[in-house]
Amino acid sequence: MNHREFVGFFNLHWAKVYSLALTMCANEAVAKDICQDIFLSIWTRSIIFDNDLEATKYLARSTKYQILNHFRNKKNVEEITDLNYSDNTEIRRYNPESILLNKELALQLEMMIAKLEEPSKSIFMLSREQNLTYKQIADEMGIAVKTVEKHISRALKELKSNLHPA
């Protein structure tokens, strides 16, 4: 397709493609961008259509897929943006004040764990530091799984109450 033929093709079909894109996305700027992308692709790939019906079908499918891609990409960008702005993990992680507070909290937690009564303390340590399941702890200590659950629950309740006194 030479330049003159493409301009004729563009002038013949642009309004239909734009109207379809605008109907599907309800945004003039996005509809125009999608039209531009579709016609640019036809020009750069030198696509030639045998008849007007083939061109119309191709343009309708291309518009549909471009709209779907737009919304998929928009969703991904929004998810990434939400992650970047709502979860400032990196900022908090390297903030000197946060580092100091985390160290103080870890030290405070260690001291509270040390004050737990036995066997809750031992069971809690096996669960949290050695990552054993309740069943593994019960087997190792020769006690029931429910007993392990009770001691873990008691330890967590005590730690929570010491961290956030009412």
Helix content: over 70%
- Mean of the pLDDT scores? 84
Radius of gyration: 32 Å
Count of β-strands: 0
How far is the first residue's CA from the last residue's CA? 78 Å
- Which regions have little confidence, pLDDT < 50, spanning 5+ residues? none
- The quaternary state of the protein chains shown equals single chain
| Number of helices, counting only DSSP H or I runs of 4 residues or more | 8
Q: What overall form do the CA principal axes indicate?
A: rod-shaped
Largest sheet: none
Share of residues in strands: under 5%
Q: Structural class, from helix and strand content?
A: mainly alpha
Element string (H = helix, E = strand): HHHHHHHH
Compile the SSE list and pairings:
Layout: H1 3-25, H2 28-44, H3 52-86, H4 89-93, H5 96-114, H6 120-128, H7 134-141, H8 145-163
Briefly characterize the structure.
With 166 residues, the chain is an all-alpha fold. It is built from eight helices and no strands. Helix content is 81%, strand content 0%.
Structural summary, described in words:
By secondary structure, the protein is mainly alpha-helical. Helix content is 81%, strand content 0%. The model has no long low-confidence stretch (mean pLDDT 84).
